[in-house]
Amino acid sequence: MLEIKGLKVKLEDEDKQILKGVDLTVEPGKVHAIMGPNGSGKSTLSYVLSGRDGYEVTAGSATLDGEDLLEMEPEERAAIGLFLAFQYPVEIPGVGNMTFLRTAVNAQRKARGQEEMSATDFLKVIREKAKTLKIDADMLKRPVNVGFSGGEKKRNEILQMAMLEPKMCILDETDSGLDVDAMKLVAEGVNALRSADRGFLVITHYQRLLDHIKPDVVHIMADGRIVKTGGPELALEVENNGYADILAEVAA
Amino acid sequence: MSAPAQSRRAQLKEAKLSATAERLEGVALPAGGAWITAAREDALARLRQMGLPGRRDEYWKYTRPDTLTQAEAPKAGVFDPEETPVFDGIDRVKIVFVDGVFSADESDPLELAGVEVERLAEAGAADIHWGKELYGVLEARGQNPVERPLATLNTALASDGVLIRVTGRAEKPVSLIYRHGSDSSDAVLHHVIKLEPGADLTLLENGPAAARFNKVLEVDVADGAGFHHVRAQGRDHERRAATHIFARLGKESTFKSFTLTVNGVLTRNECVVEFTGDEAVAHVAGACLGDGAFHHDDTVFVTHDAEACESRQVFKKVLRNGATGVFQGKILVQPGAQKTDGYQKSQSLLLDEDSQFLAKPELEIYADDVACSHGSTSGAIDEEALFYLRSRGVPTNDATDLLTLAFLAEAVDEIEDPRLAEEIVGRLEGWLKRHRRG
Ligand SMILES: Nc1ncnc2c1ncn2[C@@H]1O[C@H](COP(=O)(O)OP(=O)(O)O)[C@@H](O)[C@H]1O
Ligand SMILES: [Mg+2]
């Protein structure tokens, strides 16, 4: 599904290499986790995949179901089913959350040649999904993420994901800033979306999210590379011993 | 001040007055009855004293007045927008002017309970008329401390317009529609509105009016009365307009005015509000969209001369391709105007580096127990927000439009009636769609 090969990325404005050759394949139905110390390039990877400005790909490729992601505009990547839950969701004053979501859903449908969703159908679906994420009517009406608490912002990301039904979901530290209850809600939201034809790339700093969203594969990223790949036990190893041991072992 | 500077200033003033005298030479006042003729002659005399605005005037620092003051109106091609006119879905009494001349054929019967509407020509011919107490009177009051000579020129020369007296709560809006028919038309309209205590009226205005348009609206809002004004200026590209609103507010009255401006090579909208009764509220707001040859100037002057009044100015401008936006806004709080709540916000969204926003926000306060604030900013589209929207599948153009509408929303929100707000939003959306890149 998602195939990343030898991906090297530097900053556009600076001579700074951030990703130094990343190889990663996520198969449909699987949950891959990426863990790694701060500054190792996890967010950069997620931004480059979703098409944010400011980065320059110097080598390698990234495809989704065979389509070259790196050649596409961000909106095109979204339309073919890529979704990034932001580490820092953006506040947009003046744009209602509901308007935002409906615009997004219909823009994607249009790009895929599907009919737009009617206002009534949309309302019905969003109410239902919002309810399971404990997002109230007020949060739907308010401007996108404005005045939302950290947890509300993250739940809002998951709501967007649920509405857009992407086939490849990247979650960038969706657990950061969440208390245990909020994390459970978010994890339930993610688990509800798990299916045989959907892939997940869960970026996290801590093991605890992975207690709730069980990964099939765990990667460790350090200094712009994936330095180790294993099963769920790798996450536990990080939890117990920190990154130092793994990094030392890799370096050796 | 040094002597040479003094004489330099005197020289400038002298040159200005002689230029004004020259410009007014041979100008004939419209025919009319006694009181209106007196008002016109008085205006002409005042104008000769103050002189027409010149490039060196501080108040015209950001906007060139010459094409507004010169004898002949620069030509402006009539533009057919091929769309349903704004406010079309609103039940209202329509009063139509073509190139600044009332058109009975195209207007609705001027019948509305609690509202008396007369043409300026008819009212001016009457021996006794309430208009005498207001026509040119509010305009003259508004000349202090800053002169607004184009409004005085209007008082002298306007031959058409409406006088509206409102005695009750009008059940539907009165809608002034300005059609542009000739590419050399030079329209001068002067309207006077008198709201009796407790009365309420919504006034709508739309249309390009003429190649050049000079319009004055004097509004006297008596105690407890309410005036709601929504105006849509557009869409002729070459149009030039100088408009003035002079509002006087009585105790516990309300004045709300919103203006949308799209296109037009030059527009100067002045709004002068004077609080004379306590606990009144005035909101003046504007949203403008300019692309290319577009110069838009909002000049607002609010004088608090009563206690516990609230004034609010919200102006938003979207500019691109070398368009220019100007905002000059002042809140003057006179001695004794305690508990004044004055707010002013002017912002521009510059969609490229060629466009500019020139702002001069001012506060002048002579009372100690007041809360006044102002803020002026200029910015570009928020790239973070744009990427966020695009990452959700919203194409760049739609995302930019959405963020632009969001920027304007604060001004549009000043329109109380949701149906009217919807009409305005529809125009904004239409304009943005038409002006998309690539
Ligand atoms: N836009 C940017 N400008 C400057 N430095 C950046 C930028 N984006 C990322 N970096 C740098 O790249 C490295 C990787 O950052 P990031 O991808 O955010 O790591 P992680 O998400 O793993 O914490 C860090 O050293 C960070 O400072
Ligand atoms: Mg990160």
Automatic annotation (TrEMBL), chain A:
<keyword id="KW-0067">ATP-binding</keyword>
<dbReference type="InterPro" id="IPR017871">
    <property type="entry name" value="ABC_transporter-like_CS"/>
</dbReference>
<dbReference type="GO" id="GO:0005524">
    <property type="term" value="F:ATP binding"/>
</dbReference>
<dbReference type="InterPro" id="IPR010230">
    <property type="entry name" value="FeS-cluster_ATPase_SufC"/>
</dbReference>
<keyword id="KW-0547">Nucleotide-binding</keyword>
<protein>
    <submittedName>
        <fullName>Fe-S cluster assembly ATPase SufC</fullName>
    </submittedName>
</protein>
<dbReference type="InterPro" id="IPR003439">
    <property type="entry name" value="ABC_transporter-like_ATP-bd"/>
</dbReference>
<comment type="similarity">
    <text>Belongs to the ABC transporter superfamily. Ycf16 family.</text>
</comment>
<dbReference type="InterPro" id="IPR027417">
    <property type="entry name" value="P-loop_NTPase"/>
</dbReference>
<dbReference type="GO" id="GO:0016887">
    <property type="term" value="F:ATP hydrolysis activity"/>
</dbReference>
<dbReference type="Pfam" id="PF00005">
    <property type="entry name" value="ABC_tran"/>
</dbReference>
<feature type="domain" description="ABC transporter">
    <location>
        <begin position="2"/>
        <end position="248"/>
    </location>
</feature>
<dbReference type="InterPro" id="IPR003593">
    <property type="entry name" value="AAA+_ATPase"/>
</dbReference>
Automatic annotation (TrEMBL), chain B:
<dbReference type="InterPro" id="IPR000825">
    <property type="entry name" value="SUF_FeS_clus_asmbl_SufBD_core"/>
</dbReference>
<dbReference type="InterPro" id="IPR011542">
    <property type="entry name" value="SUF_FeS_clus_asmbl_SufD"/>
</dbReference>
<dbReference type="InterPro" id="IPR055346">
    <property type="entry name" value="Fe-S_cluster_assembly_SufBD"/>
</dbReference>
<dbReference type="GO" id="GO:0016226">
    <property type="term" value="P:iron-sulfur cluster assembly"/>
</dbReference>
<dbReference type="Pfam" id="PF01458">
    <property type="entry name" value="SUFBD_core"/>
</dbReference>
<protein>
    <submittedName>
        <fullName>Fe-S cluster assembly protein SufD</fullName>
    </submittedName>
</protein>
<dbReference type="InterPro" id="IPR037284">
    <property type="entry name" value="SUF_FeS_clus_asmbl_SufBD_sf"/>
</dbReference>
<comment type="similarity">
    <text>Belongs to the iron-sulfur cluster assembly SufBD family.</text>
</comment>
<dbReference type="Pfam" id="PF19295">
    <property type="entry name" value="SufBD_N"/>
</dbReference>
<feature type="domain" description="SUF system FeS cluster assembly SufBD N-terminal">
    <location>
        <begin position="35"/>
        <end position="168"/>
    </location>
</feature>
<dbReference type="InterPro" id="IPR045595">
    <property type="entry name" value="SufBD_N"/>
</dbReference>
<feature type="domain" description="SUF system FeS cluster assembly SufBD core">
    <location>
        <begin position="184"/>
        <end position="407"/>
    </location>
</feature>
